Amino acid sequence: MFFVMCLFLPACKKEHVQPVITTLTGASGLTYNESLEKWNALKKVNGNSYVYQSTFLSWTGAGTNTEIHVENGVVVMRKFEQFETDSETGSRTRISGYTEKGSGIGHNEHGAPPFTIDELYATCARDYLIADTESNTLLFNTDSGGLMTACGYIPHGCLDDCFQGLNIYAFGWLD
User: How far lies 12's CA from each of 2, 24, 63, 120, in Å?
Assistant: First the structure.
């Protein structure tokens, strides 16, 4: 009966995730909780206005880049670009893209979701660090300052473009 209750109660799932977010580390050596603490401290010092990019690059050379602008904790712009990468030169050719502002943010289906970094941390814990470790390899990493750069999982046995999760490719504070 307890097992059946845990399938439907969020509290049971949270208990299951807690050991992972306190122990899983990447090359940076920081756990999810330590990274989240550093993020909250950085926001206090630098404010809550920043820009970040989320990039996907396939082994085929196809890729996307989404740039999110956040001012005072609110997403104010999302830019998306789809591209092809030349395998010999490494140069990118833009295939399509868009820029969203104001009430238009989030209307396009392509690109990373228009999330703040706070929402990315919540999504990381809620949607990706709960993946079954019997079937998946969990990943969590940060940059040298402690900011999360990757959170997700790769199904065991998958060979190409298997990462399920989120990434922060570039980050900068806005004045």
Answer: 10, 19, 37, 22
User: Would 73 be classed as within a structural domain?
Assistant: yes
User: Which residues lie closer than 8 Å to 56 by C-beta, 6 or more apart?
Assistant: 63, 64, 65, 167
Neighbours of 40 (CB within 10 A): 11
pLDDT at 3 over 50: no
Range of the domain at 49: 21-169
What percent of the chain lies above the pLDDT cut of 90?
Answer: 72
Residue 87 pLDDT more than 90? no
Contacts of residue 79, Cβ cutoff 8 Å, sequence gap at least 6: 66, 67, 97, 98, 99, 100
Mean pLDDT (whole number) for 16-35: 78
Q: How many CB atoms lie within 10 A of CB 129?
A: 23
Residues facing 125 on adjacent strands:
none
For residue 27, being part of any structural domain is answered with yes
- Looking up tokens 């104001």 gives 102
Place of tokens 């990493």: 141
From the list 57, 95, 101, the residue with the least C-alpha distance to 79 is: 101
pTM of the model: 0.84
